[in-house]
């Protein structure tokens, strides 16, 4: 018999979007055509740039736990030029192996046991589990609460408010007024605002992204996280970064040293050497993705379906509350019997149980409309017999 395993880890569910995508991969491996709206990445056309022999050799070795200096400088310049946020690349910025691990390390850095973390729904599904792993208390804010109403959820145990700007999965873009209100709350109640800005480029040209680092200029309440992986369409390369006060970065660096050491050296050098060239390819494609999202919303409007308001990212939250079964039954019926993969809204919060996340990053507009029509047919049913799908779900190990 093996020794006991950590109870917190045992209590954490498998990431639902990844579970669904595994079914997708299994179906594709059998030669099936699956319409995939469950993926959390965009597929950009990015050329291969040269890697020097020197960089390749250096890539075999560790590099700074703060991140390669030349890449930190590129990121600092980007935040100053595009977002009006002045970031000291030597003391206020740290690069590591993807924004996901950085969020976890930041929470470990600032939370004590039992501290509360407010998260507005719908929320990226790993926030809740990372908070739990850090022995914090996850406090959800229902999706229909505006920023002006969030203060009612703050207690003397609240330590962090997490926002995703623009939001995965609704696409909501936080305004200047939203962020200023959050800063006032943070100052009044001595809190951190963790602003996950991984989708900052996925906006229409006329939409204005505002980084929390430009609002909290002294960075006394600012924990900004962003990802070169998402914005540059390089999710497999796992390169992200944090922007925060020097005192926070000094502690975060220790976490990075003990958990990661450094992001991949060769990839950091590659990104630094070709930073502007890569962005010249990816930013227009991210804008095209935002335009595509707008066209998808026009299709949804034409079909008379409802969704949560939002303008950014390559996701949207479809309202499926008219369905006569459960949202889980709908999701797995779509996947198993119609090869349409979406993610149930419950993965992103209890208040969004009657929604599904619908990602537009992979499929064509023609196929998107075809699949939304299938979803509409389900929502139009007067009665739903769930006997078949319940049996099929059991066959997939879904209780």
How would you characterize this protein structure?
This protein has 399 residues and is an alpha/beta fold. Helices cover 43% and strands 14% of the residues. The chain has helices spanning 7-11, 16-29, 53-58, 69-83, 99-110, 126-133, 176-189, 212-215, 228-231, 246-259, 265-273, 275-303, 327-338, 365-379, 387-395, and strands at residues 35-36, 93-96, 116-120, 137-141, 158-164, 192-196, 222-227, 240-244, 306-307, 315-319, 340-341, 343-344, 355-359. α5 (99-110) crosses α6 (126-133), α5 crosses α10 (246-259) and α12 packs parallel to α14. The two termini are 27 Å apart.
Which whole number gives the mean pLDDT?
Answer: 93
Task: Work out the radius of gyration.
Answer: 21 Å
Bin the strand percentage: 5-15%
Question: What share of the residues lie within helices?
Answer: 40-55%
Structural class: alpha/beta
Q: What strand order characterises the main sheet?
A: 2-8-7-6-5-3-4
Multimeric status of the protein: single chain
Roughly how many Å apart are the termini?
27 Å
| Total of helices | 15
DSSP, total strands: 13
Runs in which pLDDT lies below 50 for 5 or more consecutive residues are none
Main beta-sheet strand count, sense and barrel state:
7 strands, mixed
- H/E topology pattern: HHEHHEHEHEEHEHEHEHHHEEHEEEHH
Overall geometry comes to: globular
